[in-house]
Amino acid sequence: EPEVTQTPSHQVTQMGQEVILRCVPISNHLYFYWYRQILGQKVEFLVSFYNNEISEKSEIFDDQFSVERPDGSNFTLKIRSTKLEDSAMYFCASRDSNEKLFFGSGTQLSVL
Amino acid sequence: KQEVTQIPAALSVPEGENLVLNCSFTDSAIYNLQWFRQDPGKGLTSLLLIQSSQREQTSGRLNASLDKSSGRSTLYIAASQPGDSATYLCAGGGSQGNLIFGKGTKLSVKP
After folding, report:
1. How many CB pairs under 8 A join A and B?
2. What pLDDT does B40 receive?
3. What's the mean pLDDT in A80-101?
4. A98 vs chain B: nearest CA distance in angstroms?
5. Residue closest to B106 by CA, chosen among B91, B83, B82, B89
6. What percent of chain B is modeled with pLDDT above 70?
7. Among chain B residues, CA nearest to A34
8. What does the pLDDT look like over A47-65, one tens digit per residue?
9. Which among A3, B19, B55, B80 counts the fewest CB atoms within 10 Å?
10. What integer pLDDT is reported at residue B1 of this predicted model?
11. pLDDT in tens, B69-105
């Protein structure tokens, strides 16, 4: 069964460093998303991406964040200068034609 | 701004019991309502999606209902099994797929 894959599963970085989280959405899906979940808190929407551009973003998705689809398969989230409060599990998702979202297993980001 | 609330926060039941998880949302103009399952340290698995024009959806032992006028959705699990133990998340969706999640109900089914 097709699935959304995310790499790495864990990422440890120093405050102020740039990180890139990678995702391979399901191949025939057209909408892609990033969500995050801080430990013990709700899953939060960050950004949606369609037709090679951002279709919607939340207040969390400020100038430190960017997304890119560099080729036909990968979808990346870049955090330019990480802060302690960016520590969270980051989930990538893609949407099928029935509007159901499929999530990857996440990247646990730890900012020290 | 959409807010999604789930009660109870945690629930423990003996195996075989039927149970109901509750979800409420503040903005009735949701595009759809989705229920997910989250296992510890894992991603989210979609269980059921109810479009705004629908009242319920069923999959196996799971049945989800949606009442937009009252801002409520329920997830009914029949004949619960230990393998059902997980956190169940409710999410209200916009037309672009941006979901607003509740905090979840942590279910424990005891053998």
Report:
1. 59
2. 85
3. 94
4. 9
5. B89
6. 100
7. B98
8. 999 988 999 999 999 999 9
9. B55
10. 81
11. 999 999 999 999 999 999 999 999 888 788 999 999 9
Asked whether the bond before A2 is cis by omega within 30 degrees of 0, the reply is no
Q: Which two tokens stand for residue A39?
A: 């430990």
Q: Residues B85, B105: contact at Cβ < 8 Å?
A: no
A78: enclosing H helix or E strand: strand A75-79
Strand runs (DSSP E) across B1-111, as ranges?
Answer: 4-7, 10-14, 19-25, 32-38, 44-51, 56-59, 62-67, 72-77, 86-93, 99-101, 105-110
CB B9 within 8 A of CB B103: yes
Of chain A, the end-to-end C-alpha distance in Å amounts to 37
Check if the beta carbon of residue A103 is closer than 8 Å to that of residue A3.
no
β-strands A101-103, A88-95: how paired?
antiparallel
Residue B25 contacts residue B53 (beta carbons within 8 Å): no
Q: Take residue A17 and report the two structure tokens written for it.
A: 């460093």
Contact criterion met (CB below 8 Å) for A16 and A42? no
pLDDT on residue A44: 96
- Cβ atoms < 10 Å from Cβ of B20: 11
Task: Answer whether B96 sits within 8 Å of A91, measured CB to CB.
Answer: no
